[in-house]
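Hi all, long-time lurker, first post. I run a small reading group and we've been trying to get comfortable going from sequence to structure in the token notation. Rather than ask abstract questions, I figured I'd post a concrete chain and ask someone more experienced to write out its structure so we can walk through it together at our next meeting. Sequence below, copied exactly:
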Amino acid sequence: MPLVDTANATYDLGVDATHLEAFAEEIRRRYEDLAERIEEREPEGSDDRTYL
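-- Answer (accepted) --
Happy to help. Here is the structure in token form:
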């Protein structure tokens, strides 16, 4: 977490970002899994939606 690390170093906050980093990794994996499932259901090139 570069922002948290920078704030920690600049202001000597002493924040432990371990849990935040683990949470961010979990969320990243969930979104990757979701994107894969969507891609399986709607492969690229299937434009069956109408945009106005």
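A couple of things your group might point at:
The CA atoms of residues 39 and 45 lie 10 Å apart.
The mean pLDDT is 86.
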